[in-house]
Design a protein that fits this description.
30% helix; 12 helices; alpha+beta; disordered C terminus
């Protein structure tokens, strides 16, 4: 395969000649020569290489876009932070248009420009919808009509676990339906991007399943950890035990020899039998190594972000920002700032109220 493939298998002049050759001419018309255009359009003569199509699809998913174009100032994405955003489809369309405009060198190329761009956009929309369909999610999504959203994570977690698990859900009645993840990957040492097919009501970020960990939790007093240890009790089948009110049952894990940090496993086994589901006639044995391991297993940590607020109600009012030169502004690094008084005025305008902003 050559390093650079042409956009079309034939030149624009050859395509135009083929298209004109498909016209029908009939001189039997009483008013003169009748010209019948071909059934096919100009765009039907395009043949886009697969590698180019994949690259253009990546542009629609913001691949190759410099991070400075997504986050113009580091203060907008400080360390150990997460930001959610909407993707403007017009902006990504302009990315594709700009990439293809480099090939428009002559009159014949411009003949195919509009028709060809529509063909390419429709093809990329189909590819995005295929990604959603392949994931077999609960929430349907149509490219170009339904929104595309995303999030940026800047954290040490990205460096430690580049395979962080991200799940998105959307509220459907009384339940949550799963949404497709169009893209999820690290884009720098400590920054990860994820794009969602739709606007999620809930996003989960979870540690990947890379190993099995065992441990206990320190008891906190006034927010400070102590030397006392505790676990959430689990039953014989591994499910968490709850009291009649539905709260988890905690048991203290004592020390066998605190100076050497050795746990009292015998006491833990006794507590499991006393507080768990070891009912007479149900389990005819004492808690063993299996049960100790189940209770000491540490599940992957999950951070959940949930919002039920509409976009217009979830934003901060302008007067809650800092005031610089008597105007609300967002403070950036090195003394720089961005005034947002025009945004506030636009939101307060009658036209904005009619649009529901």
């Amino acid at each position: 395969m050559t390093m650079y493939q042409p956009l079309h298998e034939t030149t624009a002049v050859q395509q135009l000649h083929t298209w004109l050759g498909d016209f029908g001419f009939n001189d039997t018309d009483p008013d003169g020569l009748e010209v019948t255009p071909p059934i096919k359009g100009v765009s039907d003569y395009h043949q886009i290489p697969d590698r180019l199509r994949e690259w253009l699809l990546g542009l629609r998913l913001l691949r190759g876009v410099p991070l400075t174009h997504l986050v113009p100032d580091p203060a907008l994405l400080p360390p150990e932070s997460i930001r959610f955003f909407h993707v403007d489809p017009t902006w990504t369309d302009r990315l594709v248009d700009g990439a293809l405009s480099t090939a428009g060198a002559g009159t014949s190329d411009f003949t195919f420009a509009i028709d060809g761009l529509m063909l390419i956009r429709n093809g990329l929309d189909s590819d995005l919808e295929q990604i959603v369909e392949d994931q077999a999610v609960d929430v349907a999504w149509q490219a170009g009509k339904d929104p595309m959203t995303g999030m940026l994570i800047r954290s040490e977690l990205v460096r430690r676990w580049p395979d962080l698990v991200v799940r998105a859900r959307k509220k459907k009645g009384d339940s949550m339906g799963t949404m497709a993840i169009l893209r999820k990957e690290p884009i720098s040492r400590d920054v990860m991007i994820a794009l969602f097919a739709g606007s999620p009501s809930q996003v989960e970020v979870r540690e990947p399943d890379v190993a099995i960990r065992f441990g206990v939790e320190r008891v906190k007093v006034n927010g400070k950890p102590t030397d006392d240890l505790r676990i959430n009790l689990r039953g014989f089948e591994g499910t968490f035990v709850a009291d009649p009110a539905g709260n988890p049952v905690d048991v203290d894990v004592g020390w066998r020899k605190k100076s050497r940090r050795v746990l009292n496993i015998f006491k833990l086994a006794s507590d499991i039998k006393t507080n768990g589901d070891w009912k007479p006639g149900k389990i005819d044995r004492e808690p063993g190594a299996r049960d100790i391991a189940i209770n000491l297993e540490q599940l992957p940590y999950v951070q959940v972000f949930t919002t039920d607020e509409p976009e217009s109600e979830g934003s901060k009012p302008a007067d809650s920002f800092v005031s610089i030169q008597g105007k609300p502004a967002i403070a950036l690094q090195n003394g720089r700032y961005v005034h947002i008084d025009r945004i506030a005025a636009r939101r307060a305008s009658p036209a904005s109220a009619e649009r529901g902003e």
